[in-house]
Amino acid sequence: MSLAGLRPRLVAVWSLLLGLVAVVIVIEYTPVLGRRAAVTTSDQRLLVPLPVDQLGAVEIADAGTLHRFERDPARGWFYHGTHTRTEDAHDHAVDPAAARGIQDVLAAFGRARIERQLARETGKDPYGVTTPRILILLYRSNEPQPFVQYAVGDVAPDTVSRYVEIVGGRGVVTIPTYQIENLLTLIPSGVRAR
Description:
Layout: H1 8-40, E1 55-62, E2 65-71, E3 77-79, H2 96-110, E4 116-118, E5 134-140, E6 148-155, E7 161-166, E8 171-176, H3 177-185
Antiparallel strand pairs: 1-2, 1-5, 2-3, 4-8, 5-6, 6-7, 7-8
Helix pairs in contact: 2-3
């Protein structure tokens, strides 16, 4: 049978069928490619350079007192506090309500946008980041060293921004003050430095 012998309707049906298969392939695989691109491309305006769901621990040093928040094996957040090396083994119970609260605050911090980037002045500390009262350290899951550290400085003159130095990074930036205030609310009131 030759192509000339095929009926025009049969050719049209097969052409339509092949066209539909092509459309289905494009629809099915385009979102997957888009998601992969979104994972590898980071927003340079975000303070935290990776998604919060990849964090395993967060430490907040407030006036010299270290407060640690960790995830348990089921990925629930809990306040770990600071333990000495001589302490016996201890368990950590995750309170679901507290875990949700920690998750919500950390998720909001993960969306903190850099408002301004400022040049660091050599020998001067107009931003309060050289000897900060607050340090924030973020750890990836199962990694002993922090992947990013922030020195939290003074409140800016506009009273709605806070100076933050990305240690070893892009220098001093400003973020909304409420982001730091929210993180500090995670520290139990009985142990928070005044």
